Predict the structure.
Amino acid sequence: MENKNAQFAGSIPAAYDRYLGPILFQPYGEDLAARLAIDASSSVLELACGTGILTRILRDRLPATVRLVATDLNEPMMRTAAAKFNQNDANEWKQADASSLPFDDRSFDAVVCQFGIMFFPDKTLSAREAHRVLKPGGVFLFNVWDSMEQNPLGRIAHETISSFFKNDPPTFYQVPFGYHDHGEIKGVLEAAGFSDVRIDVVSKVSVAAGAEDAAAGLVHGNPVSMAIAERDASLLPVITIAVADALQKHFGGSMFRAPMRAIVVQARA
């Protein structure tokens, strides 16, 4: 069955990158990249690269001799990502399903993924694939969001959007904030063959130009926009304003600052 909650197409990649990138993904991309300790001859595979936010950080931080292969299942997201690079960056791009990677066994020293694991329909199979393509001792490094209760941006967006639909409200936000149980994550990784699993909780503060920008990203920068449009497209601008108002009411102040909490996971093959 097609997973509509993982369809990042149309105008979504641009809104995702413009609005959500700076306030959600850039801070955690910096954190993730800082944890990746590899030498100049290493090779890195990125899963679910999206619009290339982590990819750009990795390319800027890693030695130029490190092989960096960025993959995503959504071709429109990868097009947006590739536009941030030139031929001198020497990146490799590959459309790929994380549950069936088109790479040989023991091909990479590290596999990284920023906020993509939650969207993988078969997390056990994807973990096995990550383990398969890693060299012995290689690292699997990724982050996922903590619960919606710990991330008010997501919770407020979800509750506000749902309030417009008495029946069958969009369920998108249950996906990105639905995979955070430490025991479950560790169990999946160990079953796939990983060892030395380390899980850290990382809190940061999201800073945006204003509630309007945050709302534009939260409504238009992910597949919830398609779910709303399927129900009643005329509600898109109305809901965007409502989310902005709810965010402003909750956080207040002239500078928009919202707490975020994610889980960072490292494991060895």
